[in-house]
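Fold this sequence, please.
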Amino acid sequence: MNVPEVRPDVSRGERVGLDEAIFCAGKSVGQIESILNDARARGAGLLLTRLAPEQLQALSGEARAGLDYDALSRSAFFGAAHARGAGTRVALLSAGTSDLPAAREAQRTLAWYGEPAAEFHDVGVAGLWRLTERLEEIRRYPVLIVAAGMDAALASVVGGLVRGCVIGLPTSVGYGVASGGRVALDAMLASCAPGLAVVNIDNGYGAACIALRMLRAFAPPA
């Protein structure tokens, strides 16, 4: 099979502390197979994102057997994830169940790096009691990822109620004028809650990477 050149960034983890994740959207099955074969030869594990079900099914049996695939987030682990940490330091909130694909991508990315997340789903502000009844528990976590579409009000509300670092994850959920998540993105960027970090639309992977960098920035030296 003639496969266009792929050049894995094998030293990224040493440079920035986060290994290269394989973004599968737009890649051919041959390219993905080549990347997996290279990782297998090096004895390396990989996190794959945006791996569509049809791409998964088109891979060889050997490749599929080596993948831990999650259909909701369209992510896969190739090889063993990093060892799980002792405690839970990240809270992952979603406004509604329609936001779960992006939220799950964040959760899977954290899990790949051994960072468990406490999950609080369907806590959107349209039913504010769903958030407030769990607020004391949510406040225990130093880093929070908030996934929300439509008007994305949840991120501002959470940002005004907790001390922890809040990462806004706008999703492409919503009708008409929601514009595929652009309104959610703009609302988070324009939030009056001070210190809110915001990633791109549906970028659960990016939100998790910010959380990981935050946690490591304040970790005691090894």
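The chain has two domains: 12-78, 90-217. Residues 12-78 form one domain.
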